[in-house]
């Protein structure tokens, strides 16, 4: 057992995990990524010549490919980031989310089970399957309270429903077959290499271009914000110390409304960018029609992961500025994303 397999490792969170893993671990990494619009080898450019990295383009739903990779590389762990993840896209095209997040995850679990059953007893004991989920599976909170690992699943979007179904399959493979699985459900991530279909980079992209900055509804929807590097540190801890069959909620204890996030980005840009368009950033804000079924509030109780010794290392303002500076220093990466018009168009209004 000589490696770790990371699926979806060319995407936003997955690539951060790969980079952080190679910074601090000696075990080689095999990355399996379908390279849809959400994945890019640009995200792994800084480690493309690292002999510990083996990249394979492919689908987690391709059982023949996954079986071959497992037989060849004999990983001691699989970390499954592979997923369709944008809520608005799921509203327009839910079947795509079912195919990747539900069917794909189940096929990956089937291949993993066959591989795990072929190992000797010691190797089976050491093996882990870590599945990356989301706090959106729990639905929407009122003004008080937080999601815990025992909160009931009440998904409200096709995306959340597909991730909830995947979680149930992961848990079922532990309960039925004994496969050593762990689920990690995170709150809203932000940081470098995130696509501009998501709120934080969208505001950065639009402000730099002098374009309107849309905010859904009244902008008072609340999310718990987690810097992606803190998330990846938590995942490494869960992988090494988490209990099999368990779930862990990962949150930044940083509740902010969408409007507060946008204001914070605007203020940061105007403080550190000298060539912004003449229109003040906040004057570009445009409150637009809300997303169908838009959950009002998410908040995560991260007590369980904190008991393993994890705390977010980044405060929000510092990590937000770090994020903004990354985009400013990687204009070519930004320009390459700008060529995909679908990343900046309003979608997700199907049925309205």
> What is the succession of H and E elements?
EHEEHEHHHEHEEHEEHEEHEHHH
Give me the Rg, rounded: 20 Å
Q: Looking at the chains present, what oligomeric state does this protein adopt?
A: single chain
CATH architecture identity of the largest domain: 3-Layer(aba) Sandwich
β-strand amount: 15-25%
Integer average pLDDT: 96
Overall strand count = 12
The class by helix and strand makeup works out as alpha/beta
Q: Per CATH, what is the topology of the largest domain?
A: Rossmann fold
> How are the strands ordered across the major sheet?
3-2-1-4-5-6-10
Q: Please mark out the parts with pLDDT under 50 across 5 or more consecutive residues, or reply none.
A: none
How far is the N terminus from the C terminus? 52 Å
- Number of individual domains: 2
Global shape: globular
Corresponding CATH superfamily of the largest domain: NAD(P)-binding Rossmann-like Domain
Helix amount: 40-55%
Highlighted features:
three-stranded mixed beta sheet, 352 residues, seven-stranded parallel beta sheet, 12 helices, UDP-galactose 4-epimerase, domain 1, 16% strand
Descriptive overview:
The chain is 42% helix and 16% strand. It has 352 residues and is of the alpha/beta class. The chain folds into two domains: 3-190 and 227-250, Rossmann fold, CATH 3.40.50.720; 199-222 and 255-292 and 315-343, UDP-galactose 4-epimerase, domain 1. The strands form three sheets. It has a seven-stranded parallel sheet, with helices on both faces. The chain is globular and about 65 Å long. The model has no long low-confidence stretch (mean pLDDT 96).
